[in-house]
Design brief:
single chain; alpha/beta; Rossmann fold; 2 domains; globular
Length: 256
Amino acid sequence: MPEKKSHIKANDVTMAYGDFVVMRDLTFTVHRGDVFVIMGGSGCGKSTLLRIMIGLKSPARGCIFYEDTNFWEVDPDEQDRIKRNFGVLYQSGALWSSMTLAENIALPLGQYTDLGPNNINEIVSLKLDLVGLAGFEAFYPSEISGGMRKRAGLARAMALDPEVLFFDEPSAGLDPVSARHLDDLILELRESLGSTIVVVTHELPSIFAIGTNSVFLDPETRTMIAEGDPKKLLADSTDPRVRRFLTRGEEGMGEK
């Protein structure tokens, strides 16, 4: 089996707001093609870590590398170049309510490419088709369901064919059937686009369905206490905090 190539690496990262340390000593590697899950209980800093990885917040200490480039040590122009390879799906979908789905997806194409209107329209239709929303170009976000808005947000995240897709709680607010469909779509896109995917989630069905690698953040010790394939962590980890999270505390409930 060929050795996996490092795509993103966190090295000794500390996250803080002023003097308050959220997490410290985070060191992990996201390989090319991973579906990498950032997981842990409420308040452990999952979304803060995502913000640091996409360049919205600087770490209090440590480095984030994209291949051989230390993101937080290069100049703003180089940071912008790296961020052009990102696509981000925010928890709410973050679509502009005054724009149609087509206009939402066309926005980054108009801002960051020299493509003409006809080419942009073709790409918009292709991206909507990829997420199962062909024919919904003229709809506004308020006219479609929550699950469809998440898929439209995903289409916009993919507009520039990014190397890395970041998802913040993609299944939040969805019913189990819609959440499973979104998980299936994420896996299909990973296969077809070859993107590396980083996901913040606490939803166990999604963690086990899509995750190939992960980091577990522990709010008590304020550091990471496990990393690796979530399914292997469930099978092999002996840390009670990791097992409690991955089983939702159901292990041993009847052993009294």
